[in-house]
Amino acid sequence: MPIKIPNSLPARGALEKEGVVVMSESEAVRQDIRPLRIAMLNLMPQKQMAEMQWARLVGSTPLQIEFTLVTTASYQPTHVSTKHMEDFYRPWNEVAREKFDGFIITGAPIEKLPFEEVYYWQELTEILDWTQSHVHQSLDLCWGAQAALYHFHGIEKYMLSHKMFGVFEHEVLVSSSPLLRGFDDTFPVPVSRHTETRLTDLEGIEDITVLAHSRESGLCMVEDRKHRHVCMFNHLEYDATSLRDEYQRDRSQGLDIQVPAHYFPADDPNVEPRNSWRSHAHLFIANWINELYQNSPFDLSQVGEGSPNAVTLKQGAQS
Known about the structure:
Elements: E1 3-4, H1 11-17, E2 22-23, H2 25-30, E3 36-41, H3 47-58, E4 65-71, H4 82-88, E5 89-91, H5 92-95, E6 100-105, H6 121-134, E7 135-141, H7 143-153, E8 158-172, E9 186-196, H8 199-202, E10 208-214, E11 218-224, E12 229-232, H9 242-252, H10 278-295, H11 315-318
Parallel strand pairs: 1-2, 1-4, 3-4, 3-6, 4-5, 6-7, 7-12
Antiparallel strand pairs: 8-9, 8-10, 10-11, 11-12
Helix pairs in contact: 1-3
């Protein structure tokens, strides 16, 4: 089944060429089903790249998806045109009265900053609290995963001595998890971060389960059942060339950056890299969306009702 996105979204044409089925509003209305409502708070500076990567994954599942792009109201992005944001994004305070089956919070290149020094931190904490009453399950990525664990549990992030950068093998720790259904015992995942959340800090915290971990690069995937958040610290959504592009960007800026590990054939950055994680990316998102489909209420108004973590919206989110 297809994904419903705006006809003029730049990612649409590329997705259609890849074979991802996209549909118009009129086509969606003709189908006598309730589409899953999934929104994405896109905090990445390269908005259009993140749109493409996530629409590709979300749109490749067997269900009809209504995909909504969300931005912060307190901070205006500077790496994308104002017109693009006005045409395709909705500020969070405009969607705060609505409910969603799934909500994705991307990473952001601000991981070296203390959380409280991030310009939109206050708004993000309100959004995280809002997910408890308005979202069935959230998926937090990279810095977004660190932010969620810090907000809900006070779990700190730690600076690494060097950037963890490359494609690393990860172990499935809970093979019975529906999110990892069909996964191999080990699977490769692109990693690109300057900080880490430590496994030892999660030990003994009730309702937190570590699903996947790498002996070389650390935590990969954590489930916070109490708050209905899945935290993914790495980047299954990356394209084959994403790490190469980061490597070349950092080198062009004179940064001390190592060749991404286990990525280029023979570790030669002049050789075209190959994508070895694509199938697991699609499988993970298909599993996540299947969980939404199986467990989210058919009546969206019932999302979050009775949740012990539900919160009352603040006035600013209602305006």
